[in-house]
Amino acid sequence: MGDTLATETTQSALPPAPGADRYRSLDFADTAATLPAGQSYDLLATPESAMRWLAAHDLTTPDVKLYDVCAQRMRTLRAHVRALFAARVDATAPPEETLHAVNEALTAVPTAPLLAWDGARGLRRVQAHPTDRAVNHALATLAADAADLLTGSDAGILAACGSPPCDRFLLRTHGRRHWCSTRCGDRARAARAYARRSSASG
Domain spanning 2-201 has what CATH number? Predict the structure, then answer.
């Protein structure tokens, strides 16, 4: 219980990074982060917290129950999405296993509405899928969102937070901003001011 409360408190101190409102995969990548003073958080650490994240992003319904293996699968895909984002930011080739894992998530579920029979309405197309495949659909949606970001017009403004040790990602939606939050921006400016003072006094 204490870990969950600490996780939620930390997250409330770090609002979603710029661009997370446009790309759920960006917010997904930032569900874990390293912060100053040895702090960190992981919003997918438990099935319960992973379920809350999925529900908050309209990726599941309240009747779906997540298990440890589901949360682990989410954390695994998150690691691959982060690897893709890091490769794009660093202008390097992404790991082959990462491309394979994301493509596997993309193709694990049908992308077209299913065909169903209704006694009153006859044949119709529906988006509903079996409950036991809910996590597959959530992961496919996130993988597709990441692919859209990485191959679309916003790929050029994808950035890593420029205030170490924070390792979150963001879109540089305002000028040359390289910070994921006001908190990180303040810390980066303070570090620069300290470096200038130290240089001047030396």
Answer: 1.10.3300.10
